[in-house]
Design brief:
Shape: elongated
Number of helices: 20
Radius of gyration: 39 Å
Helix content: 25-40%
CATH superfamily of the largest domain: Glycoside hydrolase/deacetylase
CATH topology of the largest domain: TIM Barrel
Number of strands: 33
CATH class of the largest domain: Alpha Beta
Distance between the termini: 137 Å
């Protein structure tokens, strides 16, 4: 169901009811353009609205007063892709619901067809065109005499693909055909009118025999295989960031997740489980006997998902409040599901192409603007190592696939610093879809950066499939419209049509002779793809049918990366939509501020060979949190505001984590006053480190003028321990004084809270030395006099009362 131009005004209906009897819609006897149908005089629905914002094309006087009375949904299409062995009929099941404020009588539906799609752009624009373009029509089928407010009624329409004797869709050759289901009715107080419609694409990969005649022309019509396409299909396995932010690495603590949604996704019937199951089944030896589908596919795995799932297999916690990641939490329920899913993924990855995507679907243009080398390496260089280490495979390297599908020129040029790489993008050729591997201007380090250009119409249609439809960043404005009014079935049909269109549309003979190489078709769904099992299987079955029928050949992703085509350099056209879909400026600023501090903390931590927790492992989760904050996951959905809130929260939680790290190392203030026994007694202080890794610190003592303190240089504190520090000091004077003590990292960041030490000293400095000297001299004088008198036998006054014997 398309969301724009589906309503007509209650005012107009009332006018029609008062002016004349309702206009009747008569069902034509055969499906042909000449059959015609009465044209409603009321504003009608039935066309999708294109552009950045939905706008009405109803008459100016009626704008702002439009009203929708019924909603039509397509619930099933059989077959979803026609082949020579299909039934010779198309059956469409759906539902009509009264969503207005009054009953609707004489509800009727019929099936219509437009000419087959002749150009790539029409794969989208035909779905927004006027209903008059769907000029091959079937008979109306009555579904309800009266449909009350809030009530729904199902319907089923069946029409032959072709018929020599009766109404049909009049499809005579393979191709991609736009179909439309139209609903008419008479709202209370109004006249008969077209009330809603639903459009979708029907791929016809071959025509079955026409059972209405024995004419030889009614034999099955296979597709032309003279100009096959070389198909490469990316099969993404990714999820939105789930790990709670602001929690450094540990070897003995369970990870924390912000919710337990991933448990359901990994369990039987969940999104990620079904994506994996569809790939397992479709590429199995019993189905893909010649391994054509397996050769054309490549698993594209998000390393952030692997980190999360791997940690879940060891047990995990789910925080009660995502805004308080270190607060109360409860045990997660997905440990067994995570272990089973990961084992299955390992088995599948061992027998087919596997590659890594950038970490957590990070916005690569924002990453370039932040410009932190550690973040860049973590986002682009490390993912392949994570995939290899977790899955036990050697993944395909040399590919960079931005989640947005686009990249600006400066960010693209910076990729050369990572070594040879091919950019998987859609924006290297402005205004058209290309599939070749082409060099981009602006490359550095001695060579061009190549881009593998994927099919834009197909990528746009694939992104709309599933529970959470999205419009890719690279989709041009002319092909953008609100997807929420379309049923999942309709969106799936549109994707099947877009995927098969090129293989069903041969190039002119002269073009084939000039370039005999097969055309290439690179199919790229969104990295976080919300399809279910049926949708995933339908997609793989269609691609497999293309390969088996000769419409397509397998082209491994490795061939896409290795092929060097002599194409002149092309520029990247960065669309304005990429700015709206990218990481907000506030998030980029937060990452720019926190990334250097994380690096500074890492540099000051101590690498203990006896401990499994290294400084890098301890701080890596904080760097990863910054990448998760810059993720484009959820930023193309209708509720992108929630993605912004989550990103801002992650940035704040990293900041809080850094503050906790700095606060975990401090100087302990001695209780009461501290007494120095002498003028050169050292200051005795205790430094405490509550971090699970050792740290190198510097002590800063601010003493009064009468005290001189010696710098003791860098000091190492053990993990989760304390250390007594002796600070040489020299005091001149006595009494009580206050000494301020602070501790910093080696790069100057303050640790803990400064403390004030109260010192009492008994040292008197020079005065004490003079007094001591005078006392000693007096003592010597008195002792000498006494000895003198005794030597001469004279009594000494000090000996008064002494009588010699």
């Amino acid at each position: 169901m398309r969301t724009a131009l589906r309503r007509f005004t209650a005012t107009t209906l009332t006018t029609l009811a008062l002016a004349a009897a309702p206009l009747g819609f008569t069902a034509p006897s055969i499906a042909a353009p000449s059959s015609g149908s009465p044209t409603p005089t009321t504003p009608t629905s039935g066309a999708r609205t294109t552009g950045a914002q939905a706008t009405s094309t109803a008459p100016a006087a009626a704008r702002g007063t439009q009203q929708q009375f019924v909603s039509l949904s397509v619930d099933s299409v059989a077959p979803n892709a026609v082949t020579t062995s299909s039934d010779p009929f198309v059956t469409v099941g759906g539902t009509v619901t009264n969503v207005g404020d009054r009953p609707v009588e004489d509800v009727q539906v019929r099936l219509q067809r437009a000419p087959k799609v002749a150009a790539p752009a029409q794969l989208r624009t035909v779905l927004t065109s006027d209903q008059e373009n769907f000029d091959t029509v079937g008979a109306f089928d009555s579904v309800a005499e009266k449909l009350d407010v809030g009530r729904s009624v199902p319907f089923t329409l069946t029409l032959p693909l072709r018929s020599a004797t009766g109404a049909s869709l009049d499809i005579t050759d393979p191709g991609v055909y736009p179909l439309l289901v139209n609903v008419n009715g008479t709202p209370e107080y109004g006249g008969t009118a077209r009330l809603d419609d639903a459009r979708f694409l029907l791929p016809v990969l071959g025509l079955p025999r026409d059972p209405s005649t024995e004419d030889p022309d009614a034999a099955p019509v296979p597709p032309s295989t003279a100009d096959p396409v070389a198909v490469t299909l990316m099969w993404p396995l990714a999820d939105r960031p789930r790990l709670a932010a602001g929690i450094p690495g540990s070897t003995d603590e369970q990870v924390r997740l912000v919710d337990d949604g991933l448990a359901g996704s990994l369990a039987d019937g969940g999104r990620l489980e079904q994506l994996l199951a569809a790939a397992e089944f479709a590429t199995g030896d019993g189905i893909d006997r010649e391994h054509k589908l397996a050769q054309s596919m490549c698993l594209a795995v998000d390393p952030d998902l692997l980190i999360t799932v791997s940690n879940m297999t060891r047990g995990y916690l789910v925080v009660d409040d995502p805004a308080d990641p270190t607060g109360a939490a409860h045990s997660g329920t997905g440990q067994a599901a995570a272990a089973a899913w990961l084992d299955r993924l390992k088995a599948l990855a061992s027998r087919m192409c596997t590659t890594a995507v950038p970490f957590a679907q990070v916005d690569l243009t924002a990453l370039h603007r932040v410009g932190d080398p550690t973040l860049v390496a973590r986002a682009l260089a490390t993912p392949a190592d994570i995939v290899d280490g977790t899955l036990g495979v050697t993944s395909l390297r040399g590919l960079t696939w931005p989640d947005s599908g686009v990249l600006d020129a400066e960010a693209a040029a910076s990729l050369n610093g990572l070594g040879p790489t091919v950019l998987l993008a859609a924006n290297a050729v402005a205004g058209k879809s290309a599939q070749a591997k082409v060099p981009l201007s602006g490359g550095n380090n001695g060579g061009p950066l190549y881009a593998a250009l994927f099919d834009v119409p197909a990528g746009t249609a694939l992104a709309a499939v599933g529970a959470t439809p999205q419009t890719p960043t690279y989709t041009p404005a002319s092909a953008r419209y609100d997807l929420t009014g379309d049923s999942r079935t309709a969106r799936l049909q549109d994707a099947l049509g877009a995927v098969t269109w090129q293989s069903l549309t041969a190039r002119p003979v002269e073009d084939r002779m000039a370039n005999p190489d097969p055309r290439s078709l690179l199919l790229v769904p969104p990295q976080e793809w919300s399809v279910d099992g049926d949708e995933a299987r339908a997609m793989l079955s269609t691609v497999s049918t293309m390969l088996r029928s000769g419409l397509a050949t397998s082209r491994p992703l490795a061939d896409v990366l290795d092929r060097n085509m002599p194409t002149p350099p092309l520029d990247l056209a960065y669309p304005e939509q990429a700015v709206r879909d990218g990481a907000p400026t506030s998030v980029q600023d937060g990452a720019s501020a926190s990334a250097p501090e994380i690096e500074a903390v890492t540099e000051t931590l101590v690498n203990d060979p006896q401990s499994a927790l290294t400084p890098v492992r301890f701080t890596a989760p904080l760097n990863e949190d910054l990448l998760r904050a810059m993720s484009t996951s959820g930023r193309r959905d209708r509720d992108r505001a929630s993605a912004t809130v989550a990103a801002d929260l992650r940035i704040a939680q990293v900041r809080q984590a850094l503050d906790r790290i700095y606060g975990a190392v401090t100087v302990l203030a001695p209780g009461g006053a501290y007494t120095l026994a002498s003028e050169q007694s050292p200051l005795l202080l205790v430094a405490r480190n509550d971090l699970p890794v050792g740290i190198t610190v510097q002590l800063h003592v601010s003493a009064p003028p009468e005290m001189t303190v010696t710098d003791i240089g860098d000091q190492q504190l053990p993990a989760r321990g304390s250390r007594a520090l002796q600070v040489p000091a020299k005091v001149e004077g006595s009494g009580k004084m206050i000494v301020d003590v602070a501790m910093t990292t080696v790069n100057g960041r303050e640790l803990g809270e400064p403390t004030a030490v109260s010192i009492r000293t008994n040292a008197y400095g020079r005065a004490l030395a003079v007094i001591t000297g005078c006392a000693g001299a007096l003592l010597l004088l008195l002792a000498g006099r006494r000895l003198w008198h005794r030597f001469r036998g004279q009594p000494d006054r000090a000996d008064e009362g002494y009588e010699p014997r």
